Fold each of these.
Amino acid sequence: MGGDGHAPYAGEILGRFIAASRWEEIPASLRHEGRRALLNFFGGALGVARDPAVETALRVMAPFSGGGHATVIGRAERLDAMGAAFVNTIAANLLDYDDTHLETVIHPTAPVAPPLLALAEQRGLGGKAVLHAFLLGAEVECRLGCAVSPGHYARGWHITSTCGVFGAAAGCARLLGLDAAQCWAALGIAASQSAGLVENLPSAAKNVGMGNAARNGLLAALLAQAGYGAAPAAIEGPLGWARAMGDAPDLRRVTGGLGTRWEFARNTYKPYPSGIVFHAVIDACLALRVPGEAIAEVVVAGNQLLLDRGDRPVRNERDARVSIHHTAAVVLARGEAGPAAFSLAAVRDPAVAALRGRVRAVLDDGLPRGAARVTLRTGGGEERSITVTAPRGSEGQPLTDAELEAKYRANASLAGMAARAEEQIGLLWSLEDNPDMAGLMRRFAAAASPG
Amino acid sequence: MGGDGHAPYAGEILGRFIAASRWEEIPASLRHEGRRALLNFFGGALGVARDPAVETALRVMAPFSGGGHATVIGRAERLDAMGAAFVNTIAANLLDYDDTHLETVIHPTAPVAPPLLALAEQRGLGGKAVLHAFLLGAEVECRLGCAVSPGHYARGWHITSTCGVFGAAAGCARLLGLDAAQCWAALGIAASQSAGLVENLPSAAKNVGMGNAARNGLLAALLAQAGYGAAPAAIEGPLGWARAMGDAPDLRRVTGGLGTRWEFARNTYKPYPSGIVFHAVIDACLALRVPGEAIAEVVVAGNQLLLDRGDRPVRNERDARVSIHHTAAVVLARGEAGPAAFSLAAVRDPAVAALRGRVRAVLDDGLPRGAARVTLRTGGGEERSITVTAPRGSEGQPLTDAELEAKYRANASLAGMAARAEEQIGLLWSLEDNPDMAGLMRRFAAAASPG
């Protein structure tokens, strides 16, 4: 019970946790998960640093930037911390190639890391403080997501944006050294900024919800530091965040086992830049493929979720990333499922298009969520079949550090930074020993504007 | 039906309306309502220009401002357009002393006018374009509010913030000269930024929701201009704005009679800086008051809404603005109900406090919403009673232009600008003839930082 006899508020408990957490109490395995998440994050942002969606965000934000204190990853341009947080978050999540907390489908790192990195760069902070604040922010984000899942997302809320603003606020509040009451206020201010719609996911408006989660979370912490307050029950009150958004929040998921059980420890990383339910299809096709073999028919079986998400016409690269037919065809045709496999060029590749026409999607309710069975019929009449239930990157088969490094190298190459990849990987693995985040961040900037 | 056979989307119809509207088609009475709204807006922002909440917002935003293109009303400091929009919106709505669209309880002007004024100042646009864009933005804002009222507010959404971002986006899209498709996109991008909670209204977090509506609406228009798109049905789709927020939207209220029936024509202005349901109490007390008369008891009768909102302990100025007891007591003690009557000093005034103790609130279900009956028993045993059903400022008894001017002068005095008030009033009445908004805005800036 709180001092005035009430049961403690959710924000109050989280505020105390954020302010009081000690580095020594963070398990070594969780610290390593944080480093893995950041390695994956930087690579994702680098890979699309020259994407028009990133360039547009950068161009629109530049005139509203109070100085160039912070790096835009993979770019030569610099912005203030709010602008850099906005653009780097958009980049990190642009292709949905980032990390995933599977229970909530939150992509935890994209909205939380960028404002912390920008703040640390501007203020000359060290890597340990950033990693610690990041783990706390991501934990708050995932826990709030758990409290309102699965209804929240199903109702139309883009949960990474709506919960990301809390994660960013929590992380920034910690990095700024706010006390427990201020951390509580920052979360309450974040509640009044929580926004983002599933309806908008197939459009650039999705980027805006993501970028705002980062920059508005930073704003929440700065305003709390300057004395702005919020309602005590902004998160769970009768007219507060969770209920306005349609949920009776399960507050045990927010506060139960805080500091001992870590939701963020369940973070996962994508090996392929496509919808996560298609990853079993990719693994099956990679295993079945014989280069040069003539293929008569491909039958992909999955449960209703797979068919709902993936049985659709393929007109462009957005469709390709969520198409059963394209996924199977491109992997069987090319033997790989990297960014190029889901590009517009791949959609238009005649060999891939021809094979897409021979892919059939069928329902098998007996298969679990995330699983797929692929059956290949060759020109010679042979038939081979494989069922994958725990694809690479899932909780049951996490990507290894070496696999994350390989993914990073591929992304760095897309940014024209292959030559710097090993140095960058080393900087991130040793993040907590780095006293100079400003120096670190500059190693992820481009030397000059791409022409 | 649209070109591909679908019924037109809400955003599509609004986008066409915003882009195609012609100044000549705006009724003269509506243009005048726009001028009245802006006069009321500038006064409200001036009156609190030195409030700590405004100063905090300004101080936090200043380092994130890309130059000083725009005036902060009543201040010497200047910010970029996004920062100025944020701070001016907070100021205009700080005391809830601004305008009200009564059906939705939206305060229409605060989130819409500031980004337009800032953009116009930065780009050297004229007053007619600003007034036109403002009327279109406020119309879109009120219509979306009507489509989701009354459930939206009741569920916990601070409707001025959640709908204000659409109004700001619509107005800015028009002022930037976007085409119909871009205006549609701006509204869709606004949908992913719509936020703000009723739970947070008694705190500074309310200011953040308000300021964000303005700056994020501007961002939506700028991103749409730069090519960002949104989902076609971002407003009404199955996973879009209205449904995520809990409503089956009444789209007839969004698009019915567009350009002929103006929701914004129903805008009203507060004569008193207190909750609108208390205005009938104030008018009754002003009419009953005899200066110097000894008062034994005051009985205030109202319906359940009045009692729900106003029967509470009074500890500070926030409570005072929504207290039946303070309202009746201060008006009977002082004979006025301006900003000073709802200050902390008034709350602590022994004469007012003593009289508060003699006020009794009673239920009379027969009285309509917004009405009150006040009965005064004097020390000498006399009893007088008055019932007010249409208080000053309501739709039935709108404030006259002269009353709005008087309110403006009082606010300008609070900002130390009494000497400039007549010139400022003249500038606003002749707004549409002013070719130079940059020059105009500078007349509302303070000469130097208040010491």
Note: The first strand of chain B starts at residue 70 and ends at 71.
Amino acid sequence: MSRVAPTEVRTVTCVGAGVIGGGWVAYFLAKGYRVVAWDPAEDAEQRLRHLVDAAWPALTELGLAAGASVDHLTVVDTLAEACAQADFVQESAPEDLELKRTLLADISAATPPDVVISSSTSGYGMTEMATRAEHAERLVVGHPFNPPYLIPLVEVVGGEATSPEVVSWTADFFRHAGKSVIEMKREVPGFVANRLQEALWREALHMVENGEATVEEIDLSITDGPGLRWALQGPMLTFHLAGGQGGMAHMLDHFGPSLLSPWTRLEAPELTPELRDAVVEGCEREADGRSIDDLVAERDRGVIAVLRALGRA
Amino acid sequence: MSRVAPTEVRTVTCVGAGVIGGGWVAYFLAKGYRVVAWDPAEDAEQRLRHLVDAAWPALTELGLAAGASVDHLTVVDTLAEACAQADFVQESAPEDLELKRTLLADISAATPPDVVISSSTSGYGMTEMATRAEHAERLVVGHPFNPPYLIPLVEVVGGEATSPEVVSWTADFFRHAGKSVIEMKREVPGFVANRLQEALWREALHMVENGEATVEEIDLSITDGPGLRWALQGPMLTFHLAGGQGGMAHMLDHFGPSLLSPWTRLEAPELTPELRDAVVEGCEREADGRSIDDLVAERDRGVIAVLRALGRA
């Protein structure tokens, strides 16, 4: 392909300048890219510049790339003008499948055929979004988390028509741009993090609906409970440490029966020996030689650092 | 009642000295209490002292209460000896309903009848655990999070036989001891945080089982994604900010349809106007006058502080 290398991207086009699109604009500017933005809303430029200005102190504190400047943002009047200049396109339109289908077709028609076009969609697959687009081989999902200028994660996944080379190009580009990337091998609705977040969110909605907890109690239960651990160790490693010296193996053998408890409205999978072993072995791979004591010490240092950082120690 | 005031507790008895019980021992010692511990395991004292020693540097860094010392720990040989001296009992036995029923009956028989007995159970209700106990009116759930010496949250909830006065006494005691308390009005299996955590955990297990994500990807998706936000703003306030200036109201009206998406195996409740309003009004109460811009600025400062604290900025 004659596509520019992931490290050689200079101009990023951002289509859509709401909370997510505007967050991307701020991030790419801070990383030293030239950014061209387009959004059909009347007051889009004003809102976008407000959002970039609000994010800039945070980005400055984290460290701007050499030469990074808000002056490298150009807001243009037409999609065609925005896309013609792109080395990479990030689409962040409202979450509406019909709109995405049409917009991605329009973007693809307006963008040089080698240029990768990535969508911020929260959960649609590129297979269902790319139905009307030509050159669909360069359409890919690059799903960020709000705010994209601070949260590192980007989930990258292609559709049926996406070239595998485009998926790895996109993952490389986001990594080069400082992101933390999950490169998915196949389409799963909601990707990874949103499936987990959505399960929690739906359980929370059920609890509010049933009068089991208030909105404030739900938030407190996370910020003062598991949320303090999840900033540093994910749910798997968290439970690896809940098992004491026996780790995840002991945890599953000890708490496995609670999978049958009505602790959430979500049915659990059967804890087959295969699933148990997959989880245990995954934790061991992730621990990568660190003992339970090592991980406990890391967690404790991390929780203390987080509590202190948030002024709560 | 002749019960000691929550502020006048001097001696805490910890029954069970595994990961959770031992964590409680370390916490109460650091807060200046005298702690009496009992555990039937052969090597319980050795493991307990190892755990307390491992936690002590963290607790020292966070600030010990005046006079706090590991020397104020006594490990005794019998449950009766442990309970006779208690101003408050925290039970942290393995998560086994039959065992809890018998043990709580034994603890209640051995403890002066005015003394509150709290269980660390991860999800059983006190109604089902207290079936064999006399003086069940002073039995209550006080559910901590691992490690109890660092994570602030304790969920307090009584059973059918529990006196409401005991529930509020226990909440007051834990607050006085420096904990963040959710005082539940009625029993819900798994309480609040474990229901949310369990929904996420079950979705994660389904994803591993179906080959949709690896253990490492699941953890990365949280630590580098929503987990960074949840240390400072819970899932409700997080989504309040996902709606831009329109807040939760806009978010629900915009992303509400995604509740119908297959983004998790958990069925969503119907987003009735009543549920929508309850969530929106809860967020407004929680925001307590802070504008979206205020909350965005708080979140950004918080995420940056957390990233810096974890050495990831």
Note: Chain A touches chain B through 119 residues (CB under 8 Å).
Amino acid sequence: MSLEREEPSHFGAGPAQLPTCVLQQAAKDLVNYKNLGLGIGEISHRSKDATQVIEDGKRHLRELMDIPDTHEVFFMQGGGTTGFSSLGTNLLRGYVGKTGRVGTCGYLVTGSWSEKAFEEAQRLRLPAEVVFDSREFDTEKKFGSIPEESQWSARVQGKKYAYVYLCENETVHGVEWPQLPRCLVEDDDVELVADLSSDILSREIDVSQYGVIMAGAQKNIGLAGLTVYIIKKSILKNIAAADEEILNELGIPVTPIAFDYPTVVKNNSAYNTIPIFTLHVMDLVFQHLLKKGGLPQQTIENKQKAKLLYEALDAYPEFYRLPVAKNCRSSMNVVFTLVDSSLDDQFLKDAAAQRLTGLKGHRSVGGFRASLYNALTVATVERLVQFVKAFAEEHK
Amino acid sequence: MSLEREEPSHFGAGPAQLPTCVLQQAAKDLVNYKNLGLGIGEISHRSKDATQVIEDGKRHLRELMDIPDTHEVFFMQGGGTTGFSSLGTNLLRGYVGKTGRVGTCGYLVTGSWSEKAFEEAQRLRLPAEVVFDSREFDTEKKFGSIPEESQWSARVQGKKYAYVYLCENETVHGVEWPQLPRCLVEDDDVELVADLSSDILSREIDVSQYGVIMAGAQKNIGLAGLTVYIIKKSILKNIAAADEEILNELGIPVTPIAFDYPTVVKNNSAYNTIPIFTLHVMDLVFQHLLKKGGLPQQTIENKQKAKLLYEALDAYPEFYRLPVAKNCRSSMNVVFTLVDSSLDDQFLKDAAAQRLTGLKGHRSVGGFRASLYNALTVATVERLVQFVKAFAEEHK
């Protein structure tokens, strides 16, 4: 059976294209792993080989992201939704463990994912509030910009936040935080909790600035089904130290056991049967990235890819429209529309004819979205750039 | 790259051996699905192809299990733990939706998995109680038997149960319900909720008798990472109909959105990004089972396998000890010990020399466990039987 394929050029927002060499190795290991005579998905999650996959995954991620000893790495089932759905109760417990009182859950809303995260916190009856919603400051009252810090930083002063949450890259709206807000990073009393589902491993970051990093795998990391966590060890200690009776009195909901951070960490991510095949694919991606030069190299490539595409689109302002403010344009999800939307179908059809797929925008936003995740090479993006230019030249 | 392997003979309790032909097809589809030029794990979970996988999975499971129209099928991320962790709040809501008042969550405890499920309900502060713990009735006060219904059925009479939970096959202790308790099946006011993680698809069952069937995939169904649900549509309606204010007043915790049954069903199992590769493997297993004759055929094979092994072990009562009562011996997980435990290491070593692996008992029970899931052929079990006999003959 052949495991060959032509290099894809799929710009879907996720689950996303993965490196072909990773999938080929994973396919082999699915049937027979290390000549065990069994596939990697057919062994106990507590076996030596499975434990090694977990350890390798943690170690390679640490190496890739230069994760300091102050932070723990673990994995849980689920995606971003499961992620933001369980972090509130964990972090609230941590705050109670640290201070003996309940704090507020603050949300910086800059697109549909941070909005969903806030709505879920409300739904779970947590003491949640929106610190700011970028639509308040936007001239069109839409998602597509991030206000200057000076416009909202006063709102967090003196507040007792259990944590402040943000989504670093809004996949649907193509809005990415250019840098973490200084007022939060520099405030030792606030734990910054960030959803990095669609920009993790896309560039070098300073992990020490985050209280918690949560990232679904299905963009830059691997297949859907797993979420990566990087968390300050001090937060884990605080969660474990929280007094159950106080928590009960304060009415903080109990986190389901499979998502209780201390339980998961204590069991080396294998409390709930971890999908070990999915984790192995993740580790193969980590190894692949390390081999090609790690995040310094990936940062260069991703900057180049985004620059090429944004420049091409910007070159035809009468033809393409870019709804996101320049200072927070996503390097992962390039959102654009055609001024003449009657050409939308033609655009997709002509692109598909050149094997350029996955370009349709999210149903809530419309238009187009080209996701430039790690597995998309510069050469592949150059093919898209040529198409974008040619299409504009032909129809302008 | 070769996708060949010798037929494995791995008796691990799960994640378990899968049919080789299924894994070979899955490996190919991981790299290039239906000549799309992309793997099945690299496409949007809302794309046409992914939706088809979801629909196929539902349809084939319906066909296999002869699921009546009164019941809905859906999939969620996670395993058994995530499953029992989220079903209590869902079912309690359903009970409130139906009756306007809160009910009790009853648990029939027959092994470590039903015990864990009860403990989690308590931990989540649900109004949970143990209907019976089989250890009360056991002469050695251990798990290994299921009391006659007459010994406990009076306890459920007149009670207002939101649901009664049981684990149909206790994987760790090798205890399987020989049939569902009549007093619950025949009581229209009680919803029977059953964990079928380790015996689903092992034999024909009457789905109409269950309120909810929940089953982690990693035994008879596929890779770890997904859980199958079969639920009465009336329960779904009741959950959706429950009044939020009443729920809040009654102090019933909110189910995290990714595990809220009506939300998941409304979004065709794709609310939280469903691991579509894992689902595809599941569907390939369903198709494989249908092709070889469905559950009637599988029932015959599994009966034969269990009979062969239990008979071989029973033939050496001075050598092998079987801790489980005959009337509730599991056909999936055959638990046994050596009378002379100093031979334990030798047993495992000699077995491994014949490629008979995964036989070590669960760490909480010790001894040995041979799991005879669907992917283990009669011929493979015959090899184990020969070994068991020869080992006894050599060392008795």
Note: DSSP finds 13 helices and twelve strands in chain B.
Amino acid sequence: MSPQPVAPAPAATSARAPKQDRSRVTRQRLLEAAVDCLAEVGWTGSTVAVVAERAGVSRGAAQHHFPTREDLFTAAVEHVAVQRHAAVQSAAAALPSRGPNRTEAVVRMLVDLYTGPLFRAALQLWVAVSTDDQLRPRVLELESRVGRETHHTAVALLGADESHPGVRETVQATLDMARGLGLADILSDDGARRARIVRQWARILDAQLSSNSFE
Amino acid sequence: MSPQPVAPAPAATSARAPKQDRSRVTRQRLLEAAVDCLAEVGWTGSTVAVVAERAGVSRGAAQHHFPTREDLFTAAVEHVAVQRHAAVQSAAAALPSRGPNRTEAVVRMLVDLYTGPLFRAALQLWVAVSTDDQLRPRVLELESRVGRETHHTAVALLGADESHPGVRETVQATLDMARGLGLADILSDDGARRARIVRQWARILDAQLSSNSFE
């Protein structure tokens, strides 16, 4: 099934909304409550019952949509990853078209993907499944897919030419740094330090990518 | 109390070993078992009882050394961080003294700090406490201290001159990238990709740090 635009909540929850729309809204509420729950209380405290209550949905309805806890949380992390990816692409249209300000804005945007509730939720999921041989392949598949999409977005936004030696690895390093910055932010607000690193990283990328692109 | 060199286990566990030495060996066994346990089964499954059994120590003795679960695991992550730090400093003596091979070896060594059981254990602890307001300050204090030491080591090994603009942030970015690479490795072996990124990042650092150092 291809991704559907999200129906506005007030119309979709009214008594006259078709059953299919109400079902979609219920599903979306569960997914959003699951992400918030994972980010706030962690994997151990995140159960289907807790998420259903937070979403204002009956436990039966929750289990209809997501038979297992793993179904719910994997789908939740994927759902928000897709939303964030779409948000990045639309925000990218507002960036300056050239120059060092553009590079810094792009790096900031990429780094922002790894801070906030989605990253916190995804991190809880990764760490929980890292010790679980059954669940790991599933989250790994999701993570690989999201990682590939993010890499493509980064290449496009930076105007990087991956046919030049080292450029692919430089873009990957940028995303690994972004992930590391996200991790540094989970215990305390690391925003001031992060802003300085983003600025310096943008300078490095400008030097690296332009020397490769125009040689 | 200043850090003590670790007494060899066979002598210290013999019946003739002084009580103080036996106590130190028991403590060390518990700390090492705690790190392995955290890395392998995660925070939820890591209790004092499980660690005591793994270490071959009675539960009473474990609780004598570490009254709470948090005492045990915070001490465990710190213990191994101190050991790793010492290992890095002694391994650093074997590095080539100059040239691009040195930079790549240094970057690899720094990145290695964020892979393996210690990083996995620390990650489990960070993520567990990120949703716990009481425990977070304690782990944050430990993490800040270990982070500062690692930064000083990186500056020294790279021969970076932080009085030049951007150099401090470049070293920080290197460690954030290393942390991100560690996180990328928790779901599957990311070694091949990581080696390519380390090589490229070493090239970038050589260009960045030499243009700053010799300008």
Note: Chain B touches chain A through 47 residues (CB under 8 Å).
